[in-house]
Design goal:
This protein is of the alpha/beta class. It has two helices and four strands, in the order βαβαββ. Strands 1-2-3-4 form a four-stranded mixed β-sheet, covered by helices on one side. β2, α2 and β3 form a beta-alpha-beta unit.
Length: about 90
């Protein structure tokens, strides 16, 4: 541990659900305000992740659509990913 560097403070992570929270039954975002809010808070250091029973191929389009930064808990906790590149 390097004691000469200041502590950036606690990490803030918001875990989101997909169905009904991010997207509706039509697979479109529930609100147009969510993506700009995620971008704004991400610039302030907040991480946005998912907690879902879905598999990675199913959530990749959603991660990209909402510009989520991770971590991601998928397949009911059987698969954990810290971030998605690209």
């Amino acid at each position: 541990m390097n004691l000469s560097k200041p502590n950036p403070g606690p990490v803030k992570i918001i875990f989101l659900d997909i169905d009904g929270t991010l997207i509706g039954l039509d697979q479109n975002p529930n609100t147009n305000a969510l993506t700009p809010l995620i971008r704004k808070l991400s610039k302030r250091g907040v991480l946005f992740g998912l907690n879902s029973n879905r598999a990675l191929p199913d959530v990749l389009p959603i991660i990209k659509k909402f510009h989520l930064t991770g971590p991601f808990v998928l397949e009911n906790g059987a698969y954990i990913l810290s971030s998605v590149g690209g």
